[in-house]
Amino acid sequence: MTSTATELGLAPGTWRIDPAHSEVMFMIRHLMSKVRGSFTEFSGSLTIAEDLEASDVRVAVDMSSIDTRNADRDKHLRAAEIFDVESHPEMTFVSTKLRDTELDGELTIRGITRPVTLQVEFNGAGQDPWGGTRAGFTATSMISRQDFGIEFNIPVGEGMALGDKVGITLEIQAVKE
User: Fold this and answer.
1) Mean pLDDT for each 10-residue chunk of the chain (177 residues)?
2) According to a count of CB atoms within 10 Å of the terminal CB, is the N or C end of the chain lower?
3) What is the pLDDT of residues 114-130, one digit of tens each?
4) 57 vs 97: CA distance, rounded Å
5) 54 vs 164: CA distance, rounded Å
6) What is the distance of C-alpha 166 from the center of its chain?
7) Considering all CA atoms of the chain, what is the largest pairwise distance in Å, rounded to the nearest integer?
């Protein structure tokens, strides 16, 4: 990234995440392969400053909206031993610093907050067919689920059914307010 919003074609101000054109996805090892899923309900905003390092990002994810394309697994993931959605209905991310292509922030899952760094790719900005201005971003990170109190696992042979590392990918399209 460059040092100013104008150099990227981004107008400083508030940008709202468009959930109809964005995705919050994850991936975790399960046995010998990887299982993917997403959250279908989320909201957020980007406050873009002319000096990009002064920008701010806030995202809230409805944990009950988890979708792994398996209703039984989704129900189990919402249960107390994993996400405990009844007690912790939201996952949140609040940025603390943007530097080059990395966005540092505080991720909260199950009421536990940990620092996380997202690798960010700016995909461009421009006018949409309806007269608005949009910008696209891809952000990725890897977290430890145990860091957030998610200890559930099933022994399988000499190993465990689930990996500890969870890959996170955000495909974000934001609309200038």
Assistant:
1) 80 97 96 94 97 96 98 96 97 95 97 98 94 96 96 85 94 97
2) C
3) 999 999 999 999 999 98
4) 9
5) 33
6) 12
7) 58
Give the pLDDT score at 138. Answer: 98
d(CA 165, CA 168): 10
Residues forming beta bridges with residue 167, ordered by sequence position:
27, 142
Written as six digits, the tokens of 107 are 């991720």
Superfamily of domain covering 5-176: Lipid/polyisoprenoid-binding, YceI-like (2.40.128.110)
Taking the mean position of all CA atoms in its chain, how far away is CA 110?
15
Q: Which residue has the tokens 């279908």?
A: 40
